[in-house]
Amino acid sequence: SLRGLDLRAEIDRLRKERNAVILAHYYQAPELQDLADFVGDSLDLSRKAEKTDADVIAFCGVRFMAETAKILSPDKIVVLPDMDAGCSLEDSCPPDQFKAFREKHPDHIALTYINCSAAVKALSDIIVTSSSADIILSQIPKDQKIIFGPDKHLGGYLTRKTGRDMLLWPGVCIVHEAFSETELLKLKAQHPGAPVLAHPECPPHILDHADHVGSTSSILDYALRAPDSTLIVATEPHIIHQMEKAAPHKTFIGAPGADGNCNCNMCPYMALNTMEKLYLALRDLEPRIEIEEGLRLAAKKSLDRMLDMAG
Ligand code: 13P
Ligand code: SF4
């Protein structure tokens, strides 16, 4: 039994013993963010995973992120505290259906959001994250036809922003889909002038009210630099932990769902990782991400293009 163990101390001991690096996404529980060696958005985490000289990467995030780490750093042991930590966007895009979609549109390239399986990455030309999508899109010739998947809201946002028409895969993030426009407008009325910061996975009726749209890192950065003392945050609310740590004098309010609070906007997949499971993952070096080499190399091609083009 794990009762009576000082998990934080045990994790620190194992991290040294295993020469492990702990990477965490901003949507993880505060205690996991606080013990991580590095916290970041999907692009930052990919770069860290690629460059680390640790022997083990313990990934506090979801499976597609840990898979990306393994694709880029195949010689490392990559553990994910809970292998069921998936993503609704990944689930929306089964590789066989994506393949059929591509075959129907042979003159299109596939620009694909990193929130997908390794198999879908292998079927794609270029991967993007929310922080790199604009700059990557701007490097693709104007007359090139594009399929964008699996997030239709990120795709729609990019189309509105850049004027590039793309064929969109109909996936959504269940977390960002749950924000309520009515409740957001009520909250804005209660806090006149408070800027709204939103992730591009939000539907357009939420993005329409945003003063800043960007990846988690970019939202965090904006929140810390903004002169405003109250800000409304329309993304998974665990990121507010970093904001409150760095700017304790400011007030950060999570954008509400239909029930008027932000609890329904917590990512249920991210929430599967816990201190206990991280401890066990470091102790047992399980559950481990393994990717067949042919698939890994195919997926790496589209990820490498992202890393090159993102600058
Ligand atoms: P970023 O951290 O890259 O903005 O991604 C958000 C997200 O939903 C990750 O699952
Ligand atoms: Fe997937 Fe949304 Fe959770 Fe991110 S927040 S992991 S996109 S379900």
From TrEMBL:
Q: Which reaction does it catalyse?
A: iminosuccinate + dihydroxyacetone phosphate = quinolinate + phosphate + 2 H2O + H(+)
| Binding sites annotated in the UniProt record for [4Fe-4S] cluster | C87, C173, C267
Annotated GO molecular function terms are: transferase activity
Q: What is its EC number?
A: 2.5.1.72
Q: In which pathway does it act?
A: Cofactor biosynthesis; NAD(+) biosynthesis; quinolinate from iminoaspartate: step 1/1
Q: Output the HAMAP family linked to this UniProt entry.
A: NadA_type2
The entry's function note states:
Catalyzes the condensation of iminoaspartate with dihydroxyacetone phosphate to form quinolinate.
- Name of the protein: Quinolinate synthase
Q: Which gene encodes it?
A: nadA
